[in-house]
Amino acid sequence: MHHKFAFIMHPRYNVRADMGDWLAPFSLVPDWAWPIAFDRLPLPPMITGKVFFPHQPKDEAGILITLPFTPAQMLTLPRSRVQAKLDQAVDVARDMGAKIIGLGALTAPISAGGKTLAKRTDVGVTNGNAFTAAMTLAGIERLLPLLPSDPLIAIVGATGSVGGCLTRLFARRHSGRLLLVARNKGRLDALAAETRSANVEVDISLQMDDVKKADLVVLLEQGL
Ligand SMILES: NC(=O)c1ccc[n+]([C@@H]2O[C@H](COP(=O)([O-])OP(=O)(O)OC[C@H]3O[C@@H](n4cnc5c(N)ncnc54)[C@H](OP(=O)(O)O)[C@@H]3O)[C@@H](O)[C@H]2O)c1
């Protein structure tokens, strides 16, 4: 039994190609016309695809919902207007039976990583960072057999969106030693207190140099 999901996105730079992939006649609409149509016509979010898994070919696993905005419009139209269309797309997803919604492309940045949807209790929303954390854990698990026994794993950026999820996942599933690194001591202390257990030894550091002690360093600090 799986929960149905929805993935919300918008056409990419070449709007005509993306929209034409969905409905062939749209490929006849010239590039210049799309931003004007999106801006002036009261178009709703569109269901542009359905996802089926090979082992359950008759059971609709997910739906793809496209916001009628170009990437430039996502970034430059008044945020309230883009947010309203995103809210509408979330309603469509919920009404179609989706229990979890992924924020694709620029729908995550324009909603502050999904924070503007945090008030919604009717559906779950993910910006993809939980998936990144899960994939990072899978990567660590592949490396564990290659490390010395009782390895020290440093997580730089441990208190961030991805790092926090990864640290909690690791502490839930593994025993071992963690070194959590970031700049804000209060947040590090809180995370260490939450994840420390009989099986998981947790130290914190504000000094990047301390990762030299670690057998494995996971870098999840904010990029440039
Ligand atoms: N490949 C993918 O699919 C994918 C997906 C999501 C994110 N990412 C990348 O993963 C990284 C983390 O993303 P996020 O969303 O978790 O970011 P975030 O929520 O902003 O977290 C950043 C973390 O880094 C720490 N940090 C920032 N500057 C630091 C510094 N100079 N020294 C030590 N710690 C520092 C922050 O804590 P303090 O402020 O206390 O230092 C915080 O713990 C980013 O580089 C992002 O681009 C990749």
- The percent range for helix content is 25-40%
- The average pLDDT score comes to 95
The shape is elongated
Number of strands: 9
Tell me the major beta sheet: 5 strands, mixed
Distance between the termini: 41 Å
Strand order of the largest sheet: 2-3-1-4-5
Kindly provide the radius of gyration, computed on alpha-carbon positions and rounded to a whole number of angstroms. 21 Å
Structural class by secondary-structure content: alpha/beta
Q: What fraction of the residues are assigned to beta strands by DSSP?
A: 15-25%
Uncertain segments = none
Describe this structure in words.
The chain has helices at 15-22, 33-40, 71-76, 79-95, 107-110, 129-143, 161-173, 185-195; strands at 5-9, 46-53, 56-66, 100-103, 124-126, 152-156, 176-181, 200-205, 216-219. The mean pLDDT is 95. It is elongated and about 60 Å long. The chain contains 8 helices and 9 strands. With 224 residues, the protein is of the alpha/beta class. The two termini are 41 Å apart. Bound molecules: NADP nicotinamide-adenine-dinucleotide phosphate. NADP nicotinamide-adenine-dinucleotide phosphate (NAP) binds at residues 129, 132, 156-163, 181-184, 187, 208, 220-223.
Gist of the model:
The chain has 224 residues and is α/β, with parallel strands linked by helices. The chain contains 8 helices and 9 strands. The protein starts with a strand and ends in a 5-residue tail after the last strand.
